[in-house]
Specification:
Two copies of one chain form a homodimer. By secondary structure, chain A is α/β, with parallel strands linked by helices. The first copy, chain A, has 15 helices and 30 strands. In chain A, helix 1 packs parallel to helix 8 and helix 6 (186-198) packs across helix 15 (537-554).
Chain lengths: 556, 556
């Protein structure tokens, strides 16, 4: 059996090594267009910033080391330019300009995804960050650069922005959307934007780079165009599946050009498989294929395709999509669907926000995080979660990703037995608390209102009741846009003073994070008031309102 | 409806506040024998050590605050000394010596568990750590103490030992078992013992305190008795359910005197419920009741009993048991069953050890942890897990606890989509890697051998093959006790040199952590050798062997 693999990073290399462990006799040829194999893709931005000091740390394997350990025939600077699926051959173009045919029994395509470069004048000056050659170029460019524009505020864009700051460069991030980090909902991402700004990164949202000059970039926003200094321009507006070869072979393509595969990673062409960022994933939350260019799935699917070719019993799984990014010490993580996407899909959902401490408040060093949970109101299934905070965020998102995989419902998060000591969590962990809130929502115990439902007056504007203390109220409170004065009765006084509230109007209760509001809402409802709790309290409302302000302020 | 709750910490208070939120009209009386309510139980050791500086940080609520917010009638210094289940009354003894009857419709027992004090001469001098009065006594005693003996090396004992060291006290920990932290298996706990010793704690295992003198403790071990200086003696050998009252009421008791309850927390006596450390839990891994005195379950069950009394639809869940402890910066965590317990129960299991980095090795600050997974070989169900390391251990154990709750099998851990960026994990997270190993074990791809199977020669002693480099081999290797010289062929040379190995003997392959060993085992098996991989590699073998040495060395 002869297996040819196109692409020697993540998925391709996982496939090659797994296949060798399963089949010592297989002939395995790996063809890589670039100079390097199996390099630390996700480490590239950190080498630019000097966080990873040694370039050699990025280079995990060489063709020689892979030959010694796994008897792989790895050929770098060998670009596959054509496939003949009928003859089962590929045409290889070497760096020397030579061409040759290589035959195969099984062909695994793992070409990855190409960074998208905006189609604007001067675009040839925009650097991208896909491979070791790219990182060498960018590292060299940082030596002389004093200013930089990063186009795109996604995961990679933010990592690059932070690392350029580490090099002392003045960085402007330009993002087409009204928010940074579109993988998160705006009221979550707003804290990431704050963190960027506090660390000297200029953020311009709802804007795009229209031209790149010699040391500048023109940025056009809703209110006009400005020229921003840019010794260095980095394009990180996303990636596009490198599916040219698959298309040439006649394979069916799916969303944004991703190669369509079945659950065994087979393309529509016999004998050809696809894995990694170029391949479409099965969507765990919908029927169709989806694009999730993440390293964890690439490695997983690389292993899987080796199992399939070796005839091992398999289990294809739909993909959830889980990701994390660190931004100047702040962690932002996400799994599954966002609210934005659920809304775009026209799906019914329930959103829950919370602001728990990462560990017991009475133990030193506790910090507050923000969590968001998205729930299918008809089945109580978890559809997604997001977290932003100083510590413990990746843990909570991983727990929820695992819960989704295990079919644990939102309410059942209440029952999870998580490791508790005061330095690590709380006896009621943030995850358990999300479950409690979800349970109360599902049972109708405490109806809730979202921040954006208070952003504009409805037909019947409710009374907004702040149940925090007078001191907290004075420091800032939810201001109903319909002109009512905010009402403040502390939760501990509510049994005595509830008579001050009108019985003929809806009451939206809020506290700081939603917990006292829940207690107050329960009290008022039992006393016959039509009360609901502002989900996530003042903090979520404020974050939500600030997304609107920030989008306005940062637009040029 | 009138509900009387005995005990105003964790479970009792969760029940009271939840019940109020569900039923504004209920009369709720909480009777607490001590001076304080709802204090930070798990924070007590850290106040002793000064990690938590303010005593007030431990006191989360007062009877007044609970009355204001939840309309609770909380009475401290009020001990319930009798129950009449027929009349539905309890007899309350106040600190002033007065007695009165209090009637109830529902009685919730949440009395907690009492620290066990060893029955030895001088035992009255032993301090325990259950409540605020205890912590005041211990904090006062640390002022003058220069030496201390901590009896018992469980979670609380180790927390106390560390915190006494923070106070500059010379600490000796005396443990009856041959290892510290009996909640973990010995080859995992050995690293905790190392950490204690490196931080100046003397550890004596397989020993007990036989007498407590004025400033000493007599310690008897297998080889004799010694007198250890002990200005301070702390008993932390475990707790016993405080079930006197339940017994007086005629409630059925279970393991170690725990109050038996059904899944709705009902005791065998109508109208009486029990929650918290005094109540038995339903065992997720067996049929019978079990004792799991942990704060997370106490809070959970307190909430649950309120739901039951308020008539909310419920879901009783069996308990897994998940716990964590920090010991001088090292984290040790566990969920589910240990190997020791599975063996004691005569159950079939498979053990898997790994030593992954907490995040990508190429990103600064990565540290190595040790993980252990226990699997039901017939169903692939996860039976338990343990972790010890500098960082990321609580996250991994929480993920596995969630996987157990969701019915995710050991092999399916391979597919979990966990948040990856190089500062947070690996593209193949330690959890995924456990899944890979489990999958290979389940499929028979790579048979494995446990460290203790190499501790003594079997009938057919295998060849032990070290596939690490010669340099690694020279630094320390697995030495077969049957006198064979260890064989060293680096994995990268094995294709060329395998002919040096005998074909008529079993070969146990090992590397440092098990990964290269897996590759080498696969190669050898495909070449026709009877090869198996040493699970967890040299590191697990060394840890295992050291448990034997340490037990011998620390015994007096």
């Amino acid at each position: 059996m002869k297996v040819v693999i196109v692409g020697a990073v993540a998925a391709g290399m996982s496939a090659a090594t797994r296949l060798r462990r399963l089949d010592e006799s297989a002939q395995i040829v790996v063809l890589e267009a670039g100079d390097h194999v199996s390099f630390a893709n996700c480490g590239l931005p950190y080498y630019v910033g000097g966080v990873i000091e040694e370039r050699s740390a990025l280079l995990l394997q060489t063709p020689q080391s892979l030959h010694a350990r796994f008897d792989l025939d790895v050929r770098v600077r060998s670009r596959v330019i054509d496939v003949d699926p009928a003859d089962r051959t590929v045409t290889v173009l070497t760096a020397d300009g030579e061409q040759y045919l290589e035959d195969y029994d099984h062909l695994i395509l793992s070409p990855g995804a190409r960074p998208i470069v905006p189609d604007v004048p001067g675009a040839e000056r925009a650097l991208v960050l896909r491979d070791v050659a790219d990182v060498d170029r960018m590292a060299a460019a940082t030596a002389d650069a004093r200013t930089a524009v990063v186009i795109g505020a996604g995961f990679v864009g933010l990592e690059v922005a932070e690392n350029l700051r580490h090099r002392g460069i003045d960085v402007t991030v330009v993002e087409l959307a009204p928010q940074v980090l579109g993988a998160l909902d705006p009221e979550m991402a707003v804290r990431v934007q704050d963190r960027l700004v506090r660390n000297g990164v200029r953020v311009i949202t709802s804007a795009q780079v229209t031209a790149i000059g010699e040391a500048t970039a023109d940025v056009a926003g809703p209110t006009g165009t400005q020229t921003v200094p840019a010794d260095l321009v980095v394009a990180s507006i996303g990636v596009t599946p490198d599916s040219t070869l698959a298309a040439a072979a006649g394979a069916d393509l799916g969303p944004r050009g991703a190669i369509l595969v079945d659950e065994d990673m087979r393309t529509s062409v016999p004998g050809i498989y696809a894995v990694g960022d170029a391949a479409a994933k099965r969507d765990a939350f919908g029927d169709g294929p989806t694009l999730i260019p993440l390293a964890n799935l690439a490695n997983r699917h690389g292993r899987r395709v080796a199992d399939v070719i070796a005839g091992m019993p398999g289990r294809g799984r739909p993909s959830i999509g889980t990701a994390v990014v660190g931004v100047f010490g702040l962690t932002a993580a996400v799994t599954g669907r966002t609210e934005r996407r659920l809304r775009a899909e026209g799906r019914d959902y329930r959103a829950i926000h919370s602001h728990p401490m990462d560990h017991a408040g009475y133990y030193p060093g506790a910090t507050q995080m923000t969590l968001k949970l998205l729930v299918d109101p008809s089945t109580d299934a978890i559809l997604g979660a997001q977290g932003v905070g100083e510590a413990g965020v990746d843990k909570r998102i991983d727990i929820i990703a695992t819960a989704i995989a295990g079919g644990i419902t939102a309410s059942e998060l209440a029952d999870l037995e998580l490791a508790y000591a005061p330095a690590y969590g709380s006896a009621k962990d943030p995850i358990n608390m999300l479950g409690y809130v979800a349970e109360n929502a599902a049972a109708g115990t405490t109806p809730s209102v979202q921040w954006h439902e208070l952003a504009s007056a409805g037909d019947e504007a409710p009374v907004v009741l702040d149940v925090r203390t007078a001191a907290e109220h004075a420091r800032g409170t939810v201001v109903p846009p319909w002109g009512d004065a905010p009402v403040n009765i502390a939760v501990d006084d509510l049994r005595e003073r509830h008579g001050e509230l009108p019985r003929d109007r809806r009451i939206v209760v809020h506290c700081q994070v939603g917990q006292r509001g829940h207690t107050a809402t329960r009290l008022l409802r039992q006393l016959g008031y039509d009360a609901a709790n502002l989900d996530g309290g003042y903090l979520t409302w404020r974050d939500g309102i600030r997304t609107l302000e920030q989008a306005a302020a940062s637009a040029v």
